[in-house]
TrEMBL record:
<dbReference type="GO" id="GO:0003700">
    <property type="term" value="F:DNA-binding transcription factor activity"/>
</dbReference>
<dbReference type="InterPro" id="IPR046335">
    <property type="entry name" value="LacI/GalR-like_sensor"/>
</dbReference>
<dbReference type="InterPro" id="IPR009057">
    <property type="entry name" value="Homeodomain-like_sf"/>
</dbReference>
<dbReference type="InterPro" id="IPR018060">
    <property type="entry name" value="HTH_AraC"/>
</dbReference>
<feature type="domain" description="HTH araC/xylS-type">
    <location>
        <begin position="283"/>
        <end position="381"/>
    </location>
</feature>
<dbReference type="InterPro" id="IPR028082">
    <property type="entry name" value="Peripla_BP_I"/>
</dbReference>
<keyword id="KW-0805">Transcription regulation</keyword>
<keyword id="KW-0804">Transcription</keyword>
<dbReference type="Pfam" id="PF12833">
    <property type="entry name" value="HTH_18"/>
</dbReference>
<dbReference type="InterPro" id="IPR054031">
    <property type="entry name" value="XylR_PBP1"/>
</dbReference>
<keyword id="KW-0238">DNA-binding</keyword>
<protein>
    <submittedName>
        <fullName>Xylose operon regulatory protein</fullName>
    </submittedName>
</protein>
<dbReference type="InterPro" id="IPR018062">
    <property type="entry name" value="HTH_AraC-typ_CS"/>
</dbReference>
<dbReference type="Pfam" id="PF22177">
    <property type="entry name" value="PBP1_XylR"/>
</dbReference>
<dbReference type="Pfam" id="PF13377">
    <property type="entry name" value="Peripla_BP_3"/>
</dbReference>
<dbReference type="GO" id="GO:0000976">
    <property type="term" value="F:transcription cis-regulatory region binding"/>
</dbReference>
Length: 386
């Protein structure tokens, strides 16, 4: 009976990106032939443990984040594939997300929303952040605009204390021209920006729209407001790495050039769900609607929040938003209804109460008018696709 190849995975499981890589490796194994997997407890950038020096396995897939891991993996003498952007083992095949394509998607997403001002917030300790910054800045320049770059602390190698970083981010956001569309190098940095905006009372997305990268669903949906994010194809990245390693184990020659995997798209959430608005009164009205739509407000309540007549409000709303104030209120309510139908087991009566509908019958009619199906049908369909 043929012995299974013994494969070590030096990939952490503490973040969404790395877990996606592991799912891709798992998919390859399930579709082809079984491997004997060794997945040690491993943090991002952890130094290799002693077992690797005397390990006699058949292959390694690793996120090589420091020189010691690079040295240990190369010295092991077994076939190995690198899935880190640090590129510390250039002799190894390398599978990575396509940062040019990621930056291009984020730039297009923000430009489509009509912004005149753009910015990038990165972390120059990482290659992927620097590459995304360069590509995003190039895309914005090609679109005819200027991109403001978050200034990095010179020579830093370690994480800056949050209090210090928060102060620097606050000062940067305050001085940016607004409204502004910002690409953050990844979701964690984007969440930090959202926290800072909330602290200094800068409205998102009305004054600052923010998009991250990785689409970490827990992180994005715990953010306030929920964070839009580019979706990297991490499953395919892990799958391709496993396929390359399999070929190497079989004795085939594999090029050490980079194998780039394009992103899947963008998950749009509230942090960029807006058109850039130069009209302060309409921007204020939109902000009011987003904050109170599910409290049962109507257009008359909106008029009390801005010094405009109903006719002027309706006209300017159509010009900047493409919808009437009433349609915007209903859109936000029904988006919240969909979220509650998908993520909870609340009854229709309870959902109606939480989203500003006086009666579940009215909710049912409004929902079917927008989607073509009833709330019950929508909930069943969502459960079937999980």
């Amino acid at each position: 009976m043929k012995q299974r190849p013994s494969i070590a995975l030096l990939i952490e499981s503490s973040n969404s990106y790395a877990r996606g890589l592991l799912r891709g490796v798992m998919s390859y194994i399930h579709e082809h032939h079984p491997w004997s997997i060794y997945l040690p407890e491993h943090g991002r950038g952890s130094v290799p443990v002693n077992w690797l020096n005397s390990w006699h396995g058949d292959g390694i897939i690793a996120r090589i984040e420091n020189e010691k891991i690079a040295e240990a993996v190369v010295n092991s003498g077994v076939p190995a594939v690198d899935v880190s952007a640090a590129r510390l083992a250039p002799s190894l095949p390398w599978v990575e997300t396509d940062d040019r394509a990621i930056a291009s998607l984020a730039a297009q997403h923000l430009v489509e929303r009509g912004f005149q001002h753009y910015a990038f917030c990165g972390d120059d300790r990482f290659n992927w952040s620097r590459w995304r910054e360069d590509h995003f800045q190039s895309c914005i320049k090609d679109a005819g605009f200027t991109c403001h770059i978050y200034p990095q602390a010179k020579g830093r190698k370690k994480t800056i204390p949050w209090e210090q970083e928060q102060k620097r981010l606050s000062e940067w956001i305050r001085q940016l021209p607004k409204p502004v569309g910002i690409m953050a190098c990844y979701d964690i940095k984007a969440q930090q920006l959202l926290d800072v905006c909330r602290t200094i009372n800068v409205s998102v997305p009305e004054e600052v729209a923010i998009i991250g990268v990785d689409n970490d669903e827990i992180l994005c949906n715990l953010s306030e407001p929920p964070l839009s994010s580019v979706i990297p194809n991490t499953r395919l990245t892990g799958y391709e790495a496993a396929a390359l390693l399999d070929r190497m184990i079989a004795g085939q020659t594999v090029s050490s050039e980079c194998h780039l995997i394009k992103p899947l798209g963008i998950e749009t959430r509230q942090s960029t769900d807006i058109q850039a608005i130069d009209d302060k009164f309409i921007s204020d009205a939109v902000c009011f609607i987003r904050q109170y739509a599910c409290d049962g407000i109507n257009v008359q309540d909106v008029l009390k929040s801005v010094p405009l007549s109903r006719r002027v409000l309706e006209s300017r709303f159509q010009k900047f938003i493409g919808r009437s104030p009433h349609e915007e209120i209903m859109r936000i309510r029904l988006d919240r209804v969909k979220q509650l139908l998908e993520e909870t087991d609340l009854s229709l009566i309870e959902i109606a109460e939480r989203t500003g509908f006086r009666h579940p019958e009215y909710l049912n009619v409004a929902f079917k008018k927008q989607t073509g199906i009833t709330p019950g049908t929508f909930r069943r369909e969502q459960k079937q696709t999980r």
